[in-house]
């Protein structure tokens, strides 16, 4: 009798410990649902993220809000700029970043990325009367880029690393200003961004040039600190938002037409 009371007591203790452990379970594999996540961005890249009457807005913001809702998290966006965004994520000071960030091998060494959500490629922005017709024509010209972007890398692959004719700016707006003021002959940045800029600013008399031979296809992803336990939840939510039609709705609101879901889904399976 005594013995069984003792073992019952022992069993109860084990049970209570198990419950306690489960409650403290930060190591359960996924993040804390419902938690408010800090999202960092560089809101000078319309139409993906930009400031409008003091508010951070854009396709990326609407898309991420839909993903947050699907994944069951709250979020707070902070516009901190491009270089700081990588530092904050690497130092785990923010939970994730969205900023039209291209997933590539180099970045994958230091960061984790979600499943891809947008296809992009670099493009050249020049004055309407420019004689530049391809990436090769950038040789001997001054090219403005946003520092640390795939646009910079694309230009470096043609002009050479750290070439003196490559003018690097903290954000893409400053690179475009340099072009407009005549300090550069071209800007290289993501296709959607330069096409929108040329279209929305007809007074600036600019045109865009694509070069599929020199500029490869890229895909954007949400960026997390390496090893973040949020990635699994967000991968699932990104796929759901793409598959359930929400993505197409947001895409149509921003770009006016249907997204190429097939290309995206193919990339998702990789
Ligand atoms: N997609 C390019 C890259 O990842 C440019 C992104 C720049 N984004 C921004 N919000 N400024 O390098």
From TrEMBL:
Signal peptide: 1-21
Entry keyword annotation includes Zinc: no
CDD domains from the UniProt entry: PBP2_Arg_Lys_His
Domain Ionotropic glutamate receptor C-terminal: 36-257
Sequence ranges assigned to domain Solute-binding protein family 3/N-terminal in this UniProt record: 36-258
Family matches, as Pfam families: SBP_bac_3 (PF00497)
Keywords for this protein: Signal
InterPro entries associated with the record: Iontro_rcpt_C, Solute-binding_3/MltF_N
Name of this chain's protein: Basic amino acid ABC transporter substrate-binding protein
């Amino acid at each position: 009798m005594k013995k069984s009371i003792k073992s019952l007591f022992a069993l109860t203790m084990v049970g209570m410990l198990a419950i306690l452990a489960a409650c403290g379970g930060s190591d359960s594999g996924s993040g804390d649902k419902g938690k408010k996540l800090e999202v960092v961005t560089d809101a000078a890249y319309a139409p993906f993220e930009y400031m409008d009457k003091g508010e951070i807005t854009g396709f990326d913001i609407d898309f991420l809000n839909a993903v947050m809702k699907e994944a069951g998290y709250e979020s707070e966006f902070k516009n901190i700029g491009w270089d700081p965004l990588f530092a904050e994520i690497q130092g785990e000071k923010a939970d994730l970043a969205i900023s039209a960030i291209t997933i590539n091998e180099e970045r994958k060494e230091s960061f984790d990325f979600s499943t891809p959500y947008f296809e992009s490629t670099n493009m050249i922005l020049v004055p309407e009367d420019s004689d530049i017709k391809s990436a090769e024509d950038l040789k001997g010209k001054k090219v403005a880029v946003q520092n640390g972007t795939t646009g910079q890398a694309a230009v470096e692959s043609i002009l050479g690393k750290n070439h003196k004719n490559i003018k690097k700016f903290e954000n893409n707006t400053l690179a475009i200003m340099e072009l407009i003021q005549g300090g550069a002959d071209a800007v290289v940045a993501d296709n959607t961004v330069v096409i929108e800029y040329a279209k929305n600013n007809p007074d600036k008399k600019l045109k865009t040039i694509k070069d599929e031979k020199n500029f490869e296809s890229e895909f954007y992803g949400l960026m997390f600190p390496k090893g973040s336990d949020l990635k699994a939840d967000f991968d699932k939510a990104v796929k759901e938002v793409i598959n359930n039609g929400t993505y197409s709705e947001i895409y149509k609101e921003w770009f006016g037409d249907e997204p190429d879901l097939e290309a995206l889904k193919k990339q998702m399976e990789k």
